[in-house]
Design goal:
Helix content is 74%, strand content 0%. The protein has helices at residues 12-29, 37-44, 48-54, 58-81, 87-96, 99-102, 108-115, 118-123, 126-153, 161-192, 197-216, 226-238. The longest helix has 32 residues, at 161-192.
């Protein structure tokens, strides 16, 4: 008599989606620092054994969610780059995104910081580190191709293509830095009851001005203007990102 093993109830792709969604639910009820693997398995309706076939450690859970987050952001960036805007407007777009409309998860920024930290990378599985690097390469390739197009089209008036690549790195660094500062101020205001909503509003306005000055320090065919920023905001609203 040949005994046939029963077919699995869910495909590997379905299990991955179930585990990721369960992890999000568990983390939102606890935090990125103290969630339990058993709680994720219970929330997903899977055995702990099935869970550990997908992620072996809590660090793997963080990396798995971060990979989904980076894939989502790649889609957002692709949408922005496809808009009929100048390159300075597209670069400014990343400063103008509404977090609640453009994020994958409510804890995106904390997740990115944690997933790229040395302790998490050291303890995560090789599989997830490889996936993280693949997504970073994918995002870098997108940005490099768009800056090259900008240089070749004449939108950028400089003679050295490396300048616009440097500008792209600066744009990314400033965008991330301002997001972290705004996030910090928001949580301090919420949890410490500072009553500084006006400070957060001013911070956002100052960030936009600072980015505008940074971008316009480079030679563009169409430098960024106040009217151009408003046009960029309207474009993001049409995409549902603001």
């Amino acid at each position: 008599i040949i005994l046939m093993c029963p077919a699995p109830r869910y495909s590997l792709e379905q299990q991955a989606e179930m585990i990721n969604q369960a992890a999000v639910n568990v983390i939102e009820k606890s935090s990125l620092l103290d969630f339990k693997m058993t709680a994720i398995a219970k929330q997903a309706g899977l055995s702990v054994g099935s869970l550990y076939k997908y992620v072996q450690t809590k660090e793997d859970v963080i990396m798995a969610l971060a990979c989904d987050m980076f894939e989502h952001f790649h889609g957002v960036a692709t949408q922005i780059y496809q808009q009929p805007l100048t390159m300075p407007q597209k670069m400014m777009s990343f400063m103008l995104l509404s977090p609640e409309k453009s994020q994958k998860y409510s804890f995106d920024l904390d997740l990115e910081i944690l997933a790229t930290s040395e302790p998490v990378l050291r303890r995560s599985s090789a599989r997830w580190k490889a996936q993280m690097l693949a997504f970073e390469d994918k995002m870098e390739s997108l940005c490099q191709s768009k800056t090259r197009e900008c240089f070749e089209s004449g939108d950028y008036l400089g003679d050295d293509e490396t300048e616009i690549q440097q500008l792209s790195v600066g744009n990314w660094a400033m965008s991330m830095g301002f997001k972290q500062i705004r996030n910090h101020q928001g949580f301090m205001n919420e949890h410490c009851q500072l009553g500084k909503e006006s400070v957060i509003c001013q911070l956002s306005q100052h960030s936009i001005k600072a980015m505008m000055h940074f971008l316009n320090a480079y030679p563009w065919k169409h430098p960024l203007t106040e009217a151009g920023i408003e046009e960029t905001k309207n474009s993001l609203q049409q995409l549902g990102l603001r």
